[in-house]
């Protein structure tokens, strides 16, 4: 089997380290791995398949000889460095927001639009994590009844803001446990422990944040639904890992709860956990503590939207998924597998 030279840009971060683990877990045919990060990390090592790999400082020349580059750095670094990877002949799967809405760049969730990979011109984007977690279970329901409107509230984990976000919440939890003053927030706009922050990203003129508009804009592109109507509220919650979302869907056609349940139970990437009679809360509905460090989107609390005047056209549910895995690294490695 052919083997590939794979680079990870941002290899030391929350997503980059998970990508390295996913390449190993998914048995991606890696011949050579290159780990790229800032000058701060150059010379340090990370383990891959039992061997220590030395991290290099990211620079255009580092992409020479690479077949696939997985991007796990922020927008500015992605824009600055990834075009050089394409020029060097590599195919890029990027996790940042930098190229997602570029009409020349496919935006892919393999369970939904794997075929879009076929028209890439060097870069394929991985969608926003909250968008992936909402759309994986929305898609099988869309195929039954045609989704036209989504009303979503997200409950996003601290690690969505990367390694610094996770470290900040851990430090705040530790200080609270010791009865000490909570350290000043840096990664977030306010103290997160014992709090909720209803702002992720900057506000637009309508008062929506950039994170909230991603579900509409990226959702339309991924599902090929240019008219999809979305109203989203994104909230940062004091959970370390795994995003949760409340999703209400309005459909073009009637859909029964039984049809919805059947569609979700057989859908790729989805695990239906919806048993009101179960003895343990862990089996009754999805919770982020159960969905961390695994790849499925768990769906539960499935019910009719009783506020919808056309009662047969509204379904509401709750879902949780690990945003560092399926919301980022796992999805990117799945895309890379489509390429080989
Ligand atoms: N965290 C999440 O849940 C998700 C994140 N994403 C996206 O993935 C990307 C990575 O996020 P995340 O892993 O959370 O972020 P982190 O802050 O945890 O990691 C950032 C990475 O970028 C590297 N980096 C920083 N400066 C430079 C530089 N000048 N040159 C090269 N590399 C540099 C860092 O290296 P060093 O350690 O040397 O500083 C580190 O490896 C972002 O675009 C983010 O929006 C997407 C979906 C989910
Ligand atoms: N913004 C998301 C994570 C993320 O990095 O998203 P994006 O890749 O769209 O910037 C969160 O904080 O939970």
From TrEMBL:
This is Aspartate-semialdehyde dehydrogenase. Catalyzes the NADPH-dependent formation of L-aspartate-semialdehyde (L-ASA) by the reductive dephosphorylation of L-aspartyl-4-phosphate. InterPro entries: Asp_semialdehyde_DH, Asp_semialdehyde_DH_beta, NAD(P)-bd_dom_sf, Semialdehyde_DH_NAD-bd, Semialdhyde_DH_dimer_dom. Pfam families: Semialdhyde_dh, Semialdhyde_dhC. Substrate binds at residues 156, 236. The lineage of its organism: Bacteria, Bacillati, Actinomycetota, Coriobacteriia, Coriobacteriales. Phosphate binds at residue 100. Its EC number is 1.2.1.11. Homodimer. It comes from the Bacteria. Pathway: Amino-acid biosynthesis; L-methionine biosynthesis via de novo pathway; L-homoserine from L-aspartate: step 2/3; Amino-acid biosynthesis; L-lysine biosynthesis via DAP pathway; (S)-tetrahydrodipicolinate from L-aspartate: step 2/4; Amino-acid biosynthesis; L-threonine biosynthesis; L-threonine from L-aspartate: step 2/5. Coiled coil: none annotated. Residues 5-120 form the Semialdehyde dehydrogenase NAD-binding domain. Belongs to the aspartate-semialdehyde dehydrogenase family. GO terms for molecular function: aspartate-semialdehyde dehydrogenase activity. Keywords: Amino-acid biosynthesis, Diaminopimelate biosynthesis, Lysine biosynthesis, Methionine biosynthesis, NADP, Oxidoreductase, Threonine biosynthesis. The keyword tRNA-binding does not apply. It catalyses: L-aspartate 4-semialdehyde + phosphate + NADP(+) = 4-phospho-L-aspartate + NADPH + H(+). NADP(+) binds at residues 12-15, 40-41, 159-160, 323. It comes from Enorma phocaeensis.
